[in-house]
Amino acid sequence: MKNTDNVNHDTHNLWHHYGNFNWDEPNRWWAQIAGDCVDLNTENPQTYQYLIDCYGSFIKMGVDGFRIDTGGHISRLTFNSVFVPAFQALGEQYKHKRLNECPFFMYAEVCARFQGHVTYRNQPSLSPYFYTWKSPEALVSQWNSDPAYWNNVTVFESTDPATLDNQKLCLMEHEQAGGDNAQPKSNNAWLNGNNYHTPDYSQASGLNIIDFPVHYSFNSVGSVWGLFDKDNYYNDATYNVVYVDSHDYCPGPNDGIRFNGGTDQWAENLSFMFTFRGIPCVYYGSEIEFRKGVPIDQGTNIALMNTGRAYYGGYLTGDLTVSDFGEVQSASGNVKATLSYPLVRHLQRLNQIRAAVPALRKGQYSFDGCSGSGYAFKRRYTDATTDSYVLVALNGAATFTGVLNGTYTDCVTGNSITVTNGTLAVPSFSGKGNMRIYVLNGPGKIGDDEPYLYATTKPSSTVLEWDGHQEDGDPDTKYITGGGGEDPGELDVYTPIVTEDDFSVFYEAPLTAGRITTWVWSSGGNYTGGTWPGQAMTLMGCNEAKTRKIFKWKYDGDLTAMPANIIFVVDGTQTADLVYKNHGYYIDGTWNREITNYESPAPTVSIDKESGRYSDKVEVTITASDGNATIVYTTDGTKPTPNSKTATGQVKLTFTDNTVLTAGVLHEGSVRNVVSREYIFHGFEPTTATIYLKDPTVAPNNWNAVYFYAWDNAGQLLGAWPGKRMTAADTKTVKGDKFYCHTFDVTAEDYTFNIIFSQGDGSHQTIDITGLSKDTYYEIASTTSKYTVNDITAQYAVVTGDVNGDGSVDVIDVNCIINIILGNDDASKYGGLADVNGDGNIDIIDVNAVINIILN
Questions:
Q1: pLDDT digits 0-9 by tens, 515-550
Q2: Cβ–Cβ under 8 Å, residues 209 and 241
Q3: How many CA atoms lie within 13 A of 711 on its CB side?
Q4: How far, in Å, CA of 357 to CA of 375, rounded?
Q5: Strand runs labelled E in 383-433
Q6: Are 724 and 707 within 8 A, CB to CB?
Q7: Coil, helix or strand for 314?
Q8: Choosing a second label site near 674 at 20 to 30 A (CA), which of 197, 381, 636, 824?
Q9: Does 487 score more than 60 pLDDT?
Q10: Quick check: pTM over 0.70?
């Protein structure tokens, strides 16, 4: 679907075709995640109307809400312009289909594997909270809802999204978002002292989110406690969906396995989830610690039954009769055994308490005046018929000051305390996950004591045995019920083998190992690309004794220097920084030996004419070391592919114009042993020079106006004195500072021009600045005429990799180079900036250089 062969296979553009992808860039909104996971063009009305019709049918059936996976791969502007208003309207139209006409609820997973802040890697527009707010109306109003537009554009892998309607608007929202301080803030989740206040939803998008910052840190309550001072970043954090682990991740850093913090820690986390702000969510099986410590997602490497996503339903087989919410009248079979598990009993009681206390479900919260040996907070919710006020202590005694007077009753023990002076002291208690939940005018004790919510003595509990058929498959096979392993009988014995000229390594690990990634780098670049923890290694098989797994990584890129360092990450646990040894065989994080079992090497190619300048023509011969080998070559600087021009054994070519010749051999389906030459016939290529003047209209200069007067040997360039008056259209922000600027044509190798800056009044002007031929940055150095200037180019010049000169190195610069290579853009307009590595060529090496700058 990427249209990589320059043929438009999707004339209506129902799919995205953008080829580049990075989890930490806006291009994740329209890039294909994997080769077999094509991406719908959610900015195309033909596509999104189909989706609205499809999912709208569920709303018409009475569905209560949508969990959108994964929301982070659609821009906020797309949600706010299209999906949210459409689903809200349908939800309102068909509210009679839902119990008590409850509001339709939507929440999205905006993945943010990041700890310590709610802003994801300093990018608000990629952060979960960003999606809870409306988009600027100025952008929403420009949304192109005409389906015909997409029938008239051709989109290839390298097409810049900024050239496409709607996607351009999405990028504008990203660029306009600014940093943390520029984001809207809300107190919708926080009490005003003891008072609940009506939330302000005037800027709410209508889309809520999974609380990924909490989820990714939720190893314990203490590990997330410091995040809640950022709850004002969300429109209303009380609607955040909160969980510990999921079908994708566990809290970091060991995010690849199901939560394995222990039953007591689970109890603490659940107690907090069900009483603090947010909507608690429990991934199936967590209540019995199903597959704890087992890798969650192994793709196609191992059977699903051996992962943390394994089938769970057998634990629920049997008969069940309930008498009320959370009250079981009778049970049999495996479900009876499951109900005996301590966390299940804990969840039953937490649900009962939460259901009985509106403040625990819907209240705003505060930490003011709340202190203790554990964790303490207060919550309140009021409406026309309800006033619910609760003081919560977790893990130990607490003191609450400045609270409402009255009689409070604990939901856990039934103990009552009357407050007359604004202070309530919770008596001492112990137990991880144990709580005291004092409700003003409360209902009293709710539910029966269980292993984690009790008065003084932890109740004993008997956990019943399952019947041995709680999981699919043979109950006697440990690889099915034990979790974490893989039957070595299902793996083929593998003998490591390498190609003499490739970059590759092997890693031997226990059979219980699941996902292994590697991060390979040197001072010259990153060989695994993307973001930490790098590329997944391929499971090749097992050793001869069938006691260990063998994984392999092989480099498939354009860097030619030997890597220097390597790190392996095994199920979330990384090794030390290791020395990279090519064809190395590493065992449990330690280099063991070099693999010298070689495949037959690929033939090589030679080009008989060296790179250089030629006056008329050059006749070039490409020769393969094997006369029967297939030569593949290009003449536009791109790397050859199996679909490039071919020849057998040898080919002669003649060039009369500037040409970059790149050739290799096609060996076992891959292009190998690539070499390149550049032949230059034209000396100087016209270029440009931009002259920048740091804004002199502010202190200390305080100019009334800004004029540029320029001339060369042939005459005036910007009209008669005082030249061109500069306006806002002639300004540019570079590294955060405003500059007035103008771009001049440089038409010859020895061409120079001159310039004067002035206020246009005939007297306030700078000295003559002469001999200019390249981008130069100036600031006014004196406050009286004739003004002197400082050359500040070294401070403000575009950094390496900033091809388009916008002050930052990002994916737009990568696109510029790709478009030059493909012939879709003129290199001259970038003033040589596209040749990032300075070797005189603009090719894939420059693309890699920019990507490495972005990543590092």
A1: 899 999 988 788 987 778 888 888 888 998 888 999
A2: yes
A3: 12
A4: 19
A5: 387-394, 398-401, 406-410, 416-419, 423-425
A6: yes
A7: helix
A8: 824
A9: no
A10: no
